[in-house]
Design a protein that fits this description.
The protein is of the alpha+beta class. It is built from 26 helices and 63 strands. The radius of gyration is 39 Å and the shape is globular.
């Protein structure tokens, strides 16, 4: 059948999938086919690059595409310090060489592997610790489906057995006690299966990792299929040596490679953490042999993958990973580096990593470093670090072209070429423009194999940066082929000078490869092209790199600024070599200074040498219209070669704010918008304003498409990230207002502001949104605030030690209405480390240039949680919120439970952890730097713990002091506040101490929100309330009546008879003290019995002495019984207690238990607990209760020990097992009478006896149900670790007896996670 169309089917615009024509890259390769990137090595600092991805196998010359793959994050590290040797075993009638893996599996090794030492290092790694997050989600979904299939078979079987029992025992039939017990057990089995599935979580795959030295290289073999047979697995070595990689399984299709460090102690399994890095590498350098139109920009180049995105932190970069990447760049001598990562910074061109890149990677090693500028536009000063804020780094913005619109985005209409709406804008806080060039910011290209798709559309400056990197690789390929030397400074200058102007605010152009090549060749002989001309404008406390006048006090009068220009040379290879000194001597530029705008004045000329020169610049913003953006440059031309373009530029940016004439309201009416159009206005927020109401009205004049608009509101403060006071709102123009005749669409927002600071209002129609629209905007400011604490979001401290705290409120902007309320929902505690350790890091990955060592300070904290399912946020204020702008190499941490199970990882931002179990927790924090002395200052760093409290605490607010004492409720409701009027309010401290969290201690803080305007939700506008918990009230003691009548003094006249009585009283008191001393010594001796070694002479002598002196002392008998129970074990394989003791010891236990029970009047004791005791007891009654409680414990111990011993004897004695079983049952029933509940799930030792009984009767369902309840309620502390492990072993035993193998395998894996056999996961 022939399909007829009205016009021919066009060819797909493949050239737009990964644009090359707009940047002249395609033209350049066509002209110079051998300058396609060959000879150039590009490092990709990202989420890792998949070595199996399409297009990343070979270069155009047939060389390996990826020459090294390194995980700089440590997320794939496996500790392989445990050394084992193989044994010969027989498995399935086959004689094999076996080692014991850390998982407990027997691992069959290949005897042909070369291993001269015959030593193997073993470790384990959970897949979900280092697999990509999206892959984990897919695997969990698929694996759960399979698990549920197996589970429902078990559930059906359990239900069938219960139905069969009911069929065999119809209603009304006689049922024995055993019959009923069987039914209860069958019901328990069905119930347990249902509950376990409800709480099921897939443990994933647990890999055994084996590392060994083959005489030449370290090798790694991984049990990827959990079969235990390693003979078919490849022994991998460091990727760069053999360039081998492997795939975990057909199910996940995740490729991996390995590296081995620390002489085999650390094995690094390298995978990608997301698709991002593979996509980035493909843009830069992919090579499709059969489809060259899909090639990356520089298909001839080779790749080094440096993974900096830590999968444990959702692929966030860390100081550790970036520093290791910088070290790798230097060691590998990479020509180019691309880093499509970044975020806001508080201080531009500053920080440990930024300095390392600028001074060492670029300035000394000569690596050209490109980085994404950020995706936080369209507002100004939204650049990300390091790409948009750092000297020496080429920052790349994102541009969209016609070919991309057609091939990648499938729009109904074409839209103008332009920078993407979201591409971050300069200048940085210090005035530098930040963005060096633009490049295409989208592509459809390769992704990792695990994603199950060959290619994917991604856009962002993350895509523009590798596009530009590929373009630079073409240039370097040509320069290298022609043996022409270059420096990063020469390349950056040529790129900027040759770019295509695209009508951009700051004259930043689109990268042009051919023009840049021509520029490089034309001016190749000029050595001043190998310099970076640094701009320094002194503005304490930091030097600025440009002129940026933003606030009203800066734009209301002319400004005179001194500008220092200093040429920066590449660093000498060796500090004393003086390689560049002759060039420094020769340098003398005769500069003509040119201003691009009349409101900027500058001298005409400047003679510039290597030591730099200063000159004055006068900027006059007074004649400029307020509310707008203005930009100019002071350009410095070499008068001997003006066609070279400016040697340097001094950027001048002015955002002159509008001053409100009516005090508090501003309107912008009928602003017109089309695709990608941006309107920005600047105004000074009225002094004293704290928040604003905003009303936005959208309309259209003709039939058009629905559109998306984007509003940025931003204020800037010194040394604070732009994100701190940035608000973003997205608006979709829905059907109706977009049809031309629809109703006007109105949206309202409320947001916090800082009084007196310039506010940028930036509204943009998204670049791909079609149609024309009109927008009107009104902003009205408010200013209700606390006097001397005007900024919204600041802290308010309330002292709980006082009856009330006074706050004075004022409204300096306009008449406002307040309605104060305070709710506290967080308990804050502060703890010090219990241990600190300061050591150098390893030599393989953490040695800085010039052989400088990196040191790590590890701090250990311990805390206890008394409730289940607690939300906790640990905080380290000294390190949080600092990444690129940190003075340290980095900070990281891990939260563990007491069994060393990892709860989660910390970075430099607060993280909320849900602590499911109560008990003890360990937090380890690590701070890294190359200065030992600096790290010593942090030895006692405080960790802040913020707990979410379930019961919120509301503080009452009063209008007058007397009301604090007279009223139990707030008396201050809505209150009008006239402009500039002041009002005092009073915050009452709760008198009832029970309102505080039970874990709150005096001095702890309760945190929450203090709302002044309770009826309005202000975005970012609440104060944080900090309430100090006061000391606990002391309950008054009963005071004895005064002696004698009316409180007279004691009569001191003593008669002879009275004196004799006093002497007798003194003698009796001394006897009492002697007895107490003897009892204390006796009790101390008993407590020390456990400290002696079993069957030691010292212990036996002490026992004999105590027996002679205190033959009937019950605590001594219980101590002896406990010692027998803890005697050396004969067998212990599964952790259960029925085989813990030998038969000989069991007989002794029975005898001693009976002896103990005879010493106690059980009838009298039972009667005591059967009676309701008086609440108001005297000292005598308290003493009696204490004695009886001790006796009850002794009774329970005796029956429990006897039952345990009888169980052992029953299992080991065949002749009288029935008699022993009967005696065991009798003993259990006697024990049960003294227990608070059956089954006794609050005490593991008693629970063990219950489980022994149920197992003997094959009632495994009852046993498992009780054990699960115990585990669910258990608090994990140092005291319960052993019991917890025993309980897990016992659970495995029960699952085996139930033949629920699918659950047993899951529990076996979870035990490896809950109690890691390798101990604590290391921090780095």
């Amino acid at each position: 059948m022939t399909i007829r169309t009205s016009k021919p089917i066009p060819n797909f615009p493949v050239h737009g999938l990964l644009p090359k024509e707009e940047t002249e890259a395609a033209t350049f390769i066509k002209k110079y086919p051998e300058y396609d990137g060959r000879g150039v090595v590009i490092a990709i600092l990202d989420t890792g690059v998949d070595p199996g991805a399409v297009g990343l196998q070979i270069t155009t010359e047939g060389k390996p595409k990826i020459i090294d793959i390194i995980d700089c994050t440590s997320s794939g590290d496996v500790v392989t310090k445990t050394i084992v040797k193989p044994t010969i075993s027989k498995i399935n009638d086959e004689t094999v060489h076996v080692i014991k893996g850390l998982s407990g599996r027997s691992l069959i090794i290949n005897p042909t592997w070369s291993n001269p030492s015959d030593e193997f290092r073993v470790g384990i790694k959970r897949a979900y610790e280092f697999f990509p997050k999206s892959l984990i989600a897919r695997l969990k979904k698929e694996r759960r489906q399979q698990f549920e299939t197996d589970h429902y078979l078990l559930q059906a079987e359990a239900q069938q057995k219960l139905a069969a029992w009911e069929e065999d025992h119809p209603s009304g039939s006689t049922q024995t006690e055993a019959d009923i017990a069987t039914k209860v057990d069958l019901e328990a089995r069905a119930e347990v299966l249902k509950d376990m599935l409800k709480n099921y979580e897939d443990p994933g795959i647990i890999y055994d990792v084996v590392t060994f030295f083959d005489g030449t290289d370290w090798r790694v073999v991984i049990d990827v299929d959990e079969s235990g047979d390693l003979r078919g697995q490849p022994p991998l070595t460091d990727y760069k040596k053999e360039r081998q990689y492997h795939t975990f399984s057909q199910e996940d299709l995740l490729n991996f490679s390995v590296n081995i460090y620390d002489e085999g102690d650390t094995t690094s399994i390298v995978t990608v953490s997301k698709s991002h890095g593979t996509h980035v590498a493909s843009i830069t350098a992919a090579y499709y042999q059969n489809e060259p139109e899909l090639n990356g920009i520089a298909p001839g180049s080779q790749i080094i993958s440096l993974k900096i995105g830590d999968i444990r932190l959702d692929s966030m970069e860390t100081g550790l990973s970036m520093t290791r990447a910088a070290i790798s760049l230097i060691e590998s001598k990479a020509d180019l580096a691309n880093m499509s990562y970044g975020e806001a910074t508080s201080i531009p061109d500053y920080g440990y990593f930024v300095n390392l890149v600028s001074e060492e990677v670029v300035g000394k090693s000569g690596c050209i470093f490109l980085s994404s500028a950020g995706n936080s536009g369209p507002a100004l000063t939204t650049l990300g670090a390091p790409g948009g804020t750092s000297n020496g780094i080429i920052g790349v913005g994102a541009y969209v072209t016609h070919s991309m619109v057609q091939a990648e985005y499938s729009l109904l209409e074409s839209v103008p070429e332009r920078a993407y709406t979201w591409s971050s804008q300069g200048p940085s806080l210090d005035g530098s423009i930040g963005v060096s060039i633009y490049a295409p910011g989208g592509a459809i290209t390769s992704t990792p194999v695990y994603s199950l798709t060959k290619s994917q559309l991604m856009n962002g400056t993350s895509m523009s940066s590798p596009n530009a990197t590929g373009c630079v690789a073409l240039l370097l390929s040509g320069l290298k082929a022609e043996n022409k030397k270059y420096t990063p400074y020469r390349i950056k200058n040529a790129l900027e000078s040759s770019s295509k102007q695209v009508n951009e605010n700051f004259n930043v152009g689109l990268i042009q490869v051919q023009k840049t090549w021509d520029y490089l060749n034309k001016f190749y002989d000029r050595f001043d092209q190998d310099l970076e001309y640094e701009i320094k404008i002194q503005d304490r406390p930091r030097v600025k790199r440009g002129i940026y006048l933003r606030e009203s006090h800066e734009t209301s009068s002319p400004q005179l600024l001194s500008v220092m220009v200093k040429p920066k040379f590449m660093k000498d290879a060796e500090p004393t070599s003086g390689d560049f000194n002759p060039k420094k001597f020769e340098l003398e530029n005769r500069i003509a200074l040119v201003s691009t705008q009349p409101w900027v004045r500058t001298p005409d000329f400047l003679l510039l040498g290597s030591q730099g020169r200063s000159f004055d610049v006068k900027v006059d913003p007074t004649q400029l219209s307020p509310g707008n953006l203005y930009f100019a440059e002071v350009q410095g031309y070499d008068t001997t070669c003006s066609e070279l373009g400016p040697l340097f530029k001094v950027p001048v940016t002015i955002t002159k704010p509008k001053i409100l004439t009516n005090g508090y309201k501003v309107n912008y009416n009928d602003c017109s918008f089309g695709p990608g159009h941006i309107e920005r206005r600047f105004l000074k927020v009225p002094e004293g304003a704290t928040f604003a109401d905003m009303t936005i009205k959208f309309a259209t004049s003709s039939l058009t498409s629905p559109a998306r608009l984007w509003l940025n509101l931003i204020q800037l403060l010194p040394q604070k990230r732009f994100t701190a006071h940035k608000r973003e709102y997205y608006f979709s123009l829905v059907k109706g207002s977009c049809e031309g005749e629809g109703e006007e669409q109105v949206t309202k927002k409320q947001f916090s502001v800082i009084g007196g600071v310039t506010l940028e209002i930036c509204l943009a129609q998204f670049w791909s949104s079609l149609g024309s629209h009109k927008v009107s905007l009104e902003i009205s400011f408010h200013g209700a605030q606390i006097i001397n604490n005007s900024a919204s979001g600041c802290d308010v401290f309330i002292n709980g030690n006082d009856f009330f705290t006074r706050l004075d409120i004022v409204s300096p902007v306009r008449r406002d209405e307040i309605n104060p309320s305070i709710q506290l929902d967080t308990l804050r505690k502060s703890i010090r480390p219990i241990e600190s350790s300061l050591k150098p890091l390893g030599l393989d990955r953490d040695v800085l240039p010039n052989s400088r060592k990196t040191f790590a300070l590890t701090l250990t904290y311990k805390f206890n949680v008394t409730e289940k399912n607690v939300s906790l946020v640990p905080r380290f204020p000294a390190f949080f919120g600092l990444l690129y702008d940190t003075y340290l190499e980095g900070f990281s941490g891990i939260l563990y439970d007491v069994n060393k199970k990892v709860i989660g990882w910390l970075d430099v931002y607060p993280k909320n952890f849900k602590l499911e179990a109560k008990g003890d927790y360990i937090l380890q924090a690590q701070i890294r730097h190359n200065s030992h002395e600096m790290l010593e200052k942090f030895n006692n760093t405080i960790c802040i713990l913020d707990y979410n409290i379930s019961k919120k605490v509301n503080l009452n607010v009063y209008s007058q002091i007397p009301e604090v004492f007279a009223s139990e409720k707030s008396t201050l409701g809505r209150l009008p506040l006239e402009k500039d009027a002041k009002k005092a309010i009073f915050i009452g401290s709760p008198i009832d101490y029970s309102v505080y969290p039970k874990d709150g201690k005096p001095g702890d803080l309760l945190l929450g929100k203090f709302n002044l305007i309770n009826s309005i939700k202000v975005d970012g506008g609440q104060y944080q309330a900090n309430f100090i918990i006061p000391p606990v009230p002391i309950k008054p003691k009963d005071t004895p009546l005064p002696n004698g009548n009316g409180g007279d003094k004691e009569d001191t006249n003593i008669t002879d008879e009275e004196g004799s009585g006093k002497l007798e009283e003194t003698t009796a008191e001394e006897e009492k003290i002697d007895n107490e001393l003897m009892e204390s010594i006796r009790d101390l001796q008993i407590s020390y019995l456990k400290k002696f070694q079993a069957d030691s002479k010292a212990r036996n002598l002490l026992i004999k002495e105590l027996e002679n002196n205190f033959p009937n002392h019950i605590p001594l008998l219980t101590a002896k019984l406990e010692l027998l129970l803890e005697s050396p074990k004969t067998t212990t394989t599964d952790g259960s207690s029925d085989e813990d003791i030998s038969p000989e010891t069991a007989h002794k236990i029975c005898e001693l238990a009976d002896e103990l029970l005879k010493k106690i009047n059980l009838t009298e004791l039972a009667q005591y607990y059967g009676l309701k005791q008086d609440i108001n007891v005297n000292e005598m009654a308290k003493k009696k209760k204490k004695e009886n409680d001790e006796k009850k414990k002794a009774v329970i111990l005796a029956y429990r020990a006897k039952a345990q011993a009888l169980a052992v004897l029953s299992d080991t004695t065949t002749s009288s097992s029935n008699e022993l079983d009967t005696l065991f049952e009798k003993t259990w029933k006697e024990l049960a009478q003294w227990l608070d509940s059956i089954p006794p799930t609050s005490d593991f030792k008693n629970l063990q006896i219950y489980i022994i009984r149920e197992r003997k009767a094959h009632r495994f369902g009852n046993a498992l149900k009780a054990l699960n309840k115990y585990l669910n309620e258990l608090g994990l502390t140092n005291d319960t670790i052993k019991e917890y492990e025993k309980a897990l072993n016992l659970k495995s035993k029960l699952l085996t007896e139930l033949e629920w193998e699918v659950w047993n395998e899951s529990e076996r894996k979870w035990k490896l996670i809950r109690i890691p056999p390798g101990g604590y996961v290391p921090l780095s």
